[in-house]
Amino acid sequence: MECSVYYVISAQCIEGHPDPDAPALVKTYKGLANDIAVLAINKGKSVGVSEDAVNARLSLISKNLMGSIANKCVNINVLLEKYDSFCKQLAKNVDARLKELLAGKKCSGIYRCK
């Protein structure tokens, strides 16, 4: 779920930027955020996680990520450094990460936590 929130925050920070590529990037990031969130919610439901629990977790993640950038988009590099590579890998190969998580591997295999 962290990647979903990361993409939402990134999209919010990029939105309105004068770069002509910004609108396409915002659209891509919003799509990735939605896709990852839907997958996380569906997988959570399959093991008994309630919608309220998912929403509470998303809220906590959002507060933590925004806090790490002092609630200022000018500090977005903090999130880029921590999440960009991991989340891009996840978006490209969700199945491999899901298999690792189901095997109890949180920071191993092709996904390395910092």
Short description:
The chain has 114 residues and is mostly helical.
Describe this structure in words.
This protein has 114 residues and is mainly alpha-helical. The chain has one domain. Helices cover 71% and strands 0% of the residues. The protein is globular. It starts with a helix and ends in a 12-residue tail after the last helix.
Task: Give a topology summary.
Layout: H1 2-14, H2 22-46, H3 51-68, H4 77-92, H5 94-102
* Mean pLDDT over all positions: 85
The total tally of domains equals 1
Instruction: List the total number of helices.
Output: 5
Oligomeric state of this protein: single chain
Computed over alpha carbons, the radius of gyration is 14 Å
Measured by DSSP, the beta-strand proportion falls in under 5%
Number of strands: 0
Keywords:
114 residues, mainly alpha, 71% helix
